């Protein structure tokens, strides 16, 4: 085999609650995977903010990041991401400044501008709709709180100021790419569930990138993209395990969200039970997915890196059983190295 492209390998853990399982079990699984991922050479371990979802246990993302960082030693732990319009930038600065003070050099802060939930929960979060329209301004405000201490500032984040927590801009469209480019920040694209604008968003980011001299800013673009993976000893077994992921996406498409389902049969027989529109929607959402043996997934991932030019990839595995998820990440790490 040819050498893998030089792209950093990271994990995005959606902290899935199994169908019939508990949030406590999901969090315990996350901690165990993070500990193993650290040993296997993964560089970042990110979790994402979601609300009011029976199948996801990462709603209090900052708390969970602290818990995982407490249970690991060297791997970077972060948010992929915090949905900034749900929060006051000052509160996020205090939270992540505290995390960075406890775990110096290990905390990442990815920021998105979607609510990460439904309209009813958006209102329960007391989200300010105008905040999403001023996403760039709120990012700059947050960066200011985490920047060099200013004794004359009327409002200071303590802990927070001087920590310069690394900030990534997340997105699934051109909006986030434009913000990341304008502020000279790294950019991560959510191609693991919304791949349609992947290539055009990366082009927008790179073509409009403005170098930043601010702490945490970049002198050249740095990009990451998400990929669904399922790795097993045989292709047939990987495809069987991936039916859990397909069922989860089908639940999103049909509005019938549950915990992460058990695998069923194989991909063809599962998708044959759905309407043509449902099959098309699920296929489009999961287009950036690699399912197969270690060599197959490794080669697919290498091709993805070459085609997109990303500097890092962040993979997520939705296997139902904890041991299958662990095994998938281990096989990929071995193949990628």
Automatic annotation (TrEMBL):
Keyword Electron transport: no
Transmembrane segments annotated in the record for this chain: none
SUPFAM superfamilies: Bacterial luciferase-like
Superkingdom of the organism of origin: Bacteria
One GO CC term on file: cytosol
Sequence ranges assigned to domain Luciferase-like in this UniProt record: 20-311
A GO term for molecular function: oxidoreductase activity, acting on paired donors, with incorporation or reduction of molecular oxygen
Keywords (A to Z) from UniProt: Monooxygenase, Oxidoreductase
Keyword Oxidoreductase belongs to the record: yes
Similarity comment: family membership: To bacterial alkanal monooxygenase alpha and beta chains.
PANTHER family: LUCIFERASE-LIKE MONOOXYGENASE
Name used for this protein in its record: Alkane 1-monooxygenase
Species name: Terrabacter aerolatus
């Amino acid at each position: 085999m040819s050498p893998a492209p030089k792209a950093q390998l990271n994990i995005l853990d959606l902290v899935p609650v199994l169908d019939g399982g508990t949030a406590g079990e999901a969090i315990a699984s996350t901690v165990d995977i993070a500990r193993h991922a650290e040993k296997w050479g993964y560089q970042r371990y990110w979790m994402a903010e979601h609300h009011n979802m029976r199948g996801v246990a990462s709603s209090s993302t900052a708390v969970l990041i602290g818990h995982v960082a407490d249970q690991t030693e060297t791997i970077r732990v972060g948010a992929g991401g915090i949905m900034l319009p749900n929060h006051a930038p000052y509160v996020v600065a205090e939270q992540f400044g505290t995390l960075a003070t406890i775990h110096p050099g290990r905390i990442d802060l990815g920021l998105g501008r979607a609510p990460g939930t439904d309209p009813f929960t958006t209102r329960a979060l007391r989200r300010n709709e105008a905040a999403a329209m001023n996403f760039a301004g709120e990012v700059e405000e947050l960066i200011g709180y985490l920047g060099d201490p200013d004794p004359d500032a009327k409002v200071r984040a303590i802990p927070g100021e001087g920590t310069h927590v690394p900030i990534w801009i997340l997105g699934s469209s051109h909006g986030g790419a434009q913000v990341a480019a304008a502020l000279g920040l790294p950019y991560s694209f959510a191609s693991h569930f919304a791949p349609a604008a992947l290539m055009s968003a990366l082009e927008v980011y790179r073509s409009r990138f403005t170098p930043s001299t601010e702490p945490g800013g970049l002198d050249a673009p740095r990009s990451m993209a998400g990929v669904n993976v399922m790795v097993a000893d045989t292709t047939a077994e990987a495809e069987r395990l991936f039916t859990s992921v397909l069922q989860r996406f089908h639940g999103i498409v049909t509005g019938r969200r549950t915990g992460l389902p058990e695998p069923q049969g194989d991909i063809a027989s599962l998708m044959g039970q759905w309407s043509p529109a449902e099959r098309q929607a699920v296929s489009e959402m999961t287009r950036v997915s690699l399912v197969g043996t270690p060599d197959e997934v490794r080669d697919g991932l290498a091709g993805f890196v070459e085609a997109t030019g990303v500097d890092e990839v962040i993979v997520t595995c939705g296997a139902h059983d904890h041991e299958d998820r662990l095994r998938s990440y281990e096989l990929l790490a071995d193949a990628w190295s």
